[in-house]
């Protein structure tokens, strides 16, 4: 699937990819469960964000991440 075009000059596009071997190693060494590229590309409108604080919602409204991956890895910092 092609990556979407940047929205404006200078935009940074974040592309997530699956790496099964790395995911398996992380799972075997830790209790962490790596997210898949599909999960990270999930639109925020499809995710329950009610557990987030008011400040976190303010940051989402200000920075406007559109996917779970953009939110988790806050690429704007």
Structural features, described:
- This protein is mainly alpha-helical and 77 residues long.
- 38% of the residues lie in helices and 0% in strands.
- It has helices at residues 20-29, 37-40, 54-63, 68-72.
- The longest helix has 10 residues, at 20-29.
- The model has no long low-confidence stretch (mean pLDDT 87).
Sum up the overall morphology in one term. Answer: globular
Number of helices: 4
Whole-number average pLDDT? 87
Class by SSE composition: mainly alpha
Low-confidence stretches: none
What is the helix fraction of residues, given as a range? 25-40%
Give the tags.
single chain; mainly alpha
Summarize the structure.
This protein has 77 residues and is mainly alpha-helical. It has four helices and no strands.
Question: What is the secondary structure topology, with strand pairs?
Answer:
Blueprint: H1 20-29, H2 37-40, H3 54-63, H4 68-72
């Amino acid at each position: 699937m092609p990556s979407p075009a940047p929205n404006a000059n200078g935009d940074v596009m974040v592309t997530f990819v699956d790496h099964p071997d790395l995911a398996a190693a992380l799972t075997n060494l830790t209790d962490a469960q790596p997210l898949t590229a599909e999960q990270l590309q999930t639109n925020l409108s499809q995710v329950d964000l009610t557990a987030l604080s008011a400040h976190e919602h303010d940051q989402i409204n200000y920075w406007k991440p559109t996917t779970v991956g953009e939110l988790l890895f806050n690429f704007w910092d």
